[in-house]
Design brief:
Elements (H helix, E strand, L loop, with lengths): L4 E3 H9 L8 H14 L4 E4 L3 E4 L2
Antiparallel strand pairs: 1-3, 2-3
């Protein structure tokens, strides 16, 4: 699904669901760590919308 843009809410709920409450910056930290591991070119930030995985 490389053309799908994931909103913050979609990303949050797909990872943590409705059972846990985390800080708003938690996703930013995890995205940064993912970029460090797989490369920045694979996760694009769509400003004001969310994130897009590209391959």
């Amino acid at each position: 699904m490389p053309e799908k843009v994931f909103t913050w809410e979609e990303f949050f709920h797909s990872v943590w669901g409705d059972k846990i409450i985390v800080d708003d910056r938690t996703i930013d930290v995890h995205i940064r760590k993912l970029r460090e591991k797989i490369g920045e070119e694979y996760i694009k930030t769509i400003k004001g919308v969310g994130y897009k995985f590209v391959g």
